[in-house]
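Q: My labmate handed me this sequence with no annotations at all. I'd like to see what the chain might look like in three dimensions before we decide whether it's worth expressing. Could you predict it?
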Amino acid sequence: MPSIMRCDLPADALLRAYVDKGAYTDCFAVDSAARVSFADYVEAFYTSVPFKLERVVLAALVAKPSSDGDAQRLARGETERFAAWSVEARAADQVLMCDYQKRTRSWLMAAPIEGGGTRLYFGSAVVPAGGGGGRLGFPFDALLGFHQLYSRVLLGAARERVMKLWASGRP
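A: Here is what I predict for the chain of 171 residues:
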């Protein structure tokens, strides 16, 4: 199984704007042997088992429900809202989502790999209160290790879901 790697943001990543603003940013990637469309990746990410559990929590705690159909509409560019997020920016191969409190960003990108396959990216930004650079404080520092592990879990689950869809002949 390919390993999930922490990496630099691609030069054209929509998330890069937050590096320039001094926010915390991260980027993880994993390669898939399959040619994966961006829409299939987005759908797979937001309909994976770990993310479905997150969706249940969001529905219960902050009244932001979502469905697999909502994830499919987001993936196809038919909606600008999904659960606790709205689309901040979109390109043919990536999407940048902003949470309803405007403190975090989630970013997905799919890029073809020379010779075949697709590199799947997932990144996050955490913006300090007030929107500028600065310390994020103890809660963020305490949860950073969990966030990085959870990011890897989400990306790995999305890759596995994409591969199942690919094996079934869907993409």
